[in-house]
Each structure stands twice: as structure tokens, then as C-alpha cells.
Amino acid sequence: MEPVDKIRARADALEALGLDQNAGSNEIRDAWRHIAFHAHPDHTQGDCSSFSRAKEAYDLLRREGMTAKGQSGKPRRPKLRKRVIELESTDIDACRVLLNTALSHNPDGAAADAEDQNVAEADHIPDAVGFFGRHLTYFVPTPVCEGANRVALPTSFLAAVRRMDTEVLSFQSKDSGAGEVMVPEAITASKFPGARSVRIKFDADQQMRDSFWLAS
Fold first, then answer.
1. What angle do CA 110, 116, 121 make, to 5 degrees?
2. Which helix (H) or strand (E) holds 170?
3. Quick one: average pLDDT of 114-128?
4. In contact, 16 and 34? CB cutoff 8 Å
5. Given this model, what pLDDT does residue 36 score?
6. Which segment, 7-11, 101-105, 144-148, 160-164, is predicted with the most confidence on average?
7. Mean pLDDT across 177-204
8. β-strands 147-154, 179-182 pairing
């Protein structure tokens, strides 16, 4: 299980026990005892669905070291490793549609037909994203253009709900070619749920992705 998946699983387990993300070991054990008694099939006319869900949640938290006496409830920190995934064609298409419709280049201001309009030269779409814990790196194959640029990004890779949202970010560049843009913290917090930092690498090729893997 990937570190991000473990974090999501622990959050779901705590929610199943009716606890928030800051619950300590005593609260976890007390919640399990309460549910184990009141949701036991002996007390629910044989219905064991709530009991089974709670037991599965408690067992996961116990394996993660979150139920031992004296523990703060914080799990053992998993060893993070880097990974790069190729974006699905549906995600790339969603980025293209958003660039073509949400912020049209049409000088008359009219909404453009996404099927008829091509993405402009200064518009960018990533084809892969790198993960290192909660830090995201988007790899964009096209180079930055001098002046105004826009990049459409799928933003919800780290969100608790697996519904992929897409946002368009705009920026100005004094140069053209390869480059890197660091997304401001305020935008990261509001647009990229769960992410600690977001950076975008332009004119990115396979060598740049390999360097991401190898960098410490």
C-alpha cells in the first residue's frame, strides 16, 4: 500500500469509529469498546454490519501502532518513496476542454466549442505527475512561452474523495523554453487538497522524470 493510501485508510478507519484525525490511543480503544458492545450481533438482532466495519477499522489502526497505551494516536510514519504516474487520457482531455472553454482566447469573449478549438501555444497540459509524500510535481512536455501562459492541472490526487477536479493556473514568464514554476502556498492550499507543495516542470522529457526518481 502506498503512503498516501495508508493515510487515507487510517482517516477512513478513524471516521468509522466516530473519531476525528487527532484521536489518541485511549479514545480509539474506548470507541471500539463502545461500538463492540452496542453493535454486537447479540444486541442488533443478528445484524453484524456495523460491528464488522468497526472491527476492521480498529484492526487496521492496531496494526498501524495507534492503539497501544501511552501512544498519542499518531501512526508510525511510513517510509516515503517517489513515484511517477502517467495521466489517464480522460484527465488530459478534461484539461484540454477546460482550457478551451473556461478561459477562452476568443477575442469576442464568446464561449468556444471545445471540439473545434485547439489549445493555444501558451497553453499547457501535463502528461505525468510525480509524488513524494504530499509533494506533487507535474511534468509538462511543452516549453514555457514568453509572456502569458496557462496550464491546466488535475488537482485532486491526494484528496480523500477520488473525484478528479481540474484547475487552470495562469502565470507570466520573461523567458521561453524549459523551466519550473512553484505554485504559491495559498493556491496550493485552496486548489490542491492534501498537497503540501506543488511544482510544475515545463519542457519535461523522460530524462527529467528519471532525475526526479534519483534525486534525494
1. 85
2. strand 166-173
3. 74
4. no
5. 83
6. 144-148
7. 93
8. unpaired
